[in-house]
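Page 47, continued from p. 46.
Same chain as before, 397 aa.
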Amino acid sequence: MPASETLRVRVYNVRFGDAILISVPDKVRRGKIETRHILIDVGNVLSGTGGGDEVFGPVIENVLEVLDGKPLDLYVMTHEHMDHVQGLFYAATKLGLDLEVQEAWLTASAAGDYYETHEDAKKKRSLALDTFDAMERFLAAAPEPADPVVLNMLFNNNPRNTTECVDHLRKVAGEDHTVYVYRGCGVDGSHLFREEGTSIELWAPEEDTSVYYGRFRPMALGLDPVQEGGTEGAKPALTTPLPPPGVDAGAFYDLVASRSRGIGDNLLSIDAAANNSSVVFCLEWRGWRLLFPGDAEHRSWKQMNKVGALKPVHFLKVGHHGSANGTPPPELLDKILPEEPEDGRPRFAAVSTCTGSYSGVPHKDTMELLASRCTLRSVEDLPEGEPYMDFHFPPKP
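Result:
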């Protein structure tokens, strides 16, 4: 069977990050096949074993080789985390490797004017940034260095780190060919394809991303009030708060310690809000259904279920690098990967991850659950030096 008649999903090993190239045969006139190429993300966490810029050159070189002089049909940036956005910027500015892109989809909240037109999201985003800044100053002043996992999360969620990368991605296809997408925005049944029955359906995010923000825990971080003003160049200092008159000292310091521990919970909440803004799309081609959910977490999966988007698929890009909260809870997983396939076709799942980058990721029980329902493959299982793994979907299984 000619290779051009087989859909291929190529998952690159970028360690703890995502880079995926989908090559879709599209039947145009008189039975001629033209292959459409969709690139999703390209990035990793930048530090520790899960990071490293050296992986991006081979990825972009391979993408250019596959394109063979033609432009990329569609680039999709799922959300604004460094492990998803920095690869194309690095390749262009450091390696001189540029992709010609016909169309780009970026998550809705990446639009330059998004927070001016969505007041509720702006308020919650503002609170998240204030909370992030307070945590960052506290950890800079703390006498002991922060856990590497916490530092990874801080770097990954720091909007100052993603600014240049996202600005670059806004320009890869030009302003007139860049769409900030959300469920229902009008690109369903994508014009990318001419073949009847081939389409892309957007399942997420919601247009108003305020639905993805949770509550933040109160924190009493003990930052010197002078430093709270953020004097430029000044190192933050810690103070020891005193219990108010008449308040038991032991109970007061227990409360302060508890609120300081709120850093972890609040950082996870900020991280989850960005993950839940992920572009989630389902590609349908000749009876196959392939799902690419970015790093959508439970809050987004529940919202997708609420609007009736979930349906059985044959391929799942495992969300959030194999974390427990990146895969739908069991009652929703049943809707996309039921225990028995409805049509008898084989099913697959792919996870791009790097053990040790984040505590408990990939999550053992989650991986076992997915493996019980489909063929699960991880980039960690690739032979040394193998840069990617491929999944093939023939026109007739």
